[in-house]
Specification:
Layout: H1 3-30, E1 34-39, E2 46-48, E3 52-57, E4 63-72, E5 78-85, E6 90-97, E7 105-116, E8 123-129, E9 135-139, E10 149-151, E11 161-162, E12 164-169, H2 171-174, E13 209-216, E14 221-227, E15 236-242, E16 250-256, E17 261-264, E18 273-282, E19 285-286, E20 293-296, H3 302-358
Helix pairs in contact: 1-3
Length: 368
């Protein structure tokens, strides 16, 4: 075997090692979070974060675990990212130090413990920092339909959206078999079809089916879930609520067409009965109402919130451990392949030197 073949073996081993590491590393990442909302583009304009900047967005998932944003300049200086609701209540906060990079712009990733959010509600990515040259990439055209950029507390006509990506997961999808909810008092015998307020029965849009309601301890709200409409070409779902089963219902929110649940925590009182139904919609056309579901909320206690937080923390830790295990497997596999390639190289090199000695310094078995 000649020297060129030996080099090829080592290079191939290194390539395989890197490839396996990338594959297993991506599995580790996938076990932790998935892309939810994003507004990405090739930036050519940046707005200073010396005051504060906000990008609003509406998540489709009920847990957020990471946020990306692109910053120009500000090397060595600190910038703070906060995730807040519309009342500016801080849900999570992280401070990062901007790096010296060239070109002087970089997408920074901020990873944090899972934050519970309400799909379809508006939230703020709030960026603030001291650097006069630490700036957030923005687009002057509206690229993200479910939010907008806010500069210094006001909407700036020249700044439509900032560059961002949010990641997360749906709790019910990651943990598909939750324990029975003791607070779910839905009685299927009481469900009725209240279609008088919706479109006529010959609507071309099928209504969602099998609605359910259960108390969500983490948000102290009501989680309404349903089975997707059989109509594929839709915009999403509208959720309605009333405190009187036969009374007037008010629209409380919308969910995307891929969503099958919604958390209502708007003015929810303890020990009170609420009624819900869901409609499918596309533009101005709606389906008939789904069946009505009802739920009586329990007494709110601090133990409920603490138990839910503990359960969420434990399961989030499980997700993280899965990711770390995938990464460990990848590292071990990469090390074994790389070690095998290097071992092959040194064995061939030793044989080559031995052959030279046996032939008086001439190498007849190996080409130079």
């Amino acid at each position: 075997m000649n020297a060129k073949k030996t080099i090829k073996i080592v290079l191939l081993s290194s390539f395989l090692a890197v490839f396996i590491l990338i594959i297993f590393g991506s599995q580790a990442k996938a076990a932790v979070f998935y892309v939810d909302q994003q507004c990405t583009f090739t930036p050519n304009a940046y707005r200073s974060a010396s005051g504060y900047l906000i990008q609003t967005f509406k998540p489709l998932m009920d847990r957020i675990t990471k946020i990306d944003f692109e910053i120009w300049g500000g090397s060595g200086q600190a910038i703070t990212m906060r995730l807040t609701d519309t009342d500016l209540t801080v849900l999570t906060e992280k401070t990062i130090v901007l790096e010296e990079v060239y070109p002087p712009h970089k997408v920074y990733s901020v990873l944090f413990d899972p934050v519970t959010v309400v799909p379809g509600n508006t939230y703020y990515i709030y960026l603030q920092g001291a650097p006069s040259d630490g700036s957030w990439a923005y687009s002057d055209t509206n690229l993200y339909s479910d939010g907008e950029a806010i500069v210094g507390g006001v909407v700036d006509p020249g700044v439509a959206d900032f560059y961002f990506i949010t990641y997360g997961y749906n709790y019910s999808e990651v943990y598909p078999d939750p324990p029975p909810n003791p607070y779910d008092t839905t009685d299927s015998s009481d469900e009725t079809d209240s279609s008088d307020d919706a479109d006529s029965s010959d609507s071309e849009i099928e209504k969602p089916t099998e609605p359910k309601a259960e108390f969500d301890k983490s948000s102290r709200g009501v989680r309404i879930s349903w089975t997707k409409s059989e109509t594929e070409d839709i915009d999403g779902y509208r959720i309605f609520r009333s405190e009187d089963k036969d009374g007037d219902y008010t629209e409380i929110g919308t969910a995307g067409k891929e969503n099958t649940d919604y958390i209502d925590n708007k003015n929810i009182d303890e020990e009170k009965t609420y009624y819900y139904y869901v409609r499918t919609y596309k533009e101005d056309t709606e389906s008939e109402n789904s069946e009505i579901v009802e739920i009586e909320t329990p007494v709110f206690t601090s133990e409920d919130t603490e138990d839910e937080k503990k359960e969420t923390d434990e399961k989030s830790e499980t997700i993280t451990k899965k990711g770390k295990n995938w990464l460990k497997i990848g590292l071990i596999a990469a090390f074994i392949i790389l070690a095998g390639g290097l071992t092959t190289y040194f064995i061939i090199k030793k044989r080559k030197n031995n052959a030279k000695k046996l032939n008086g310094g001439k190498n007849e078995n190996f080409k130079k």
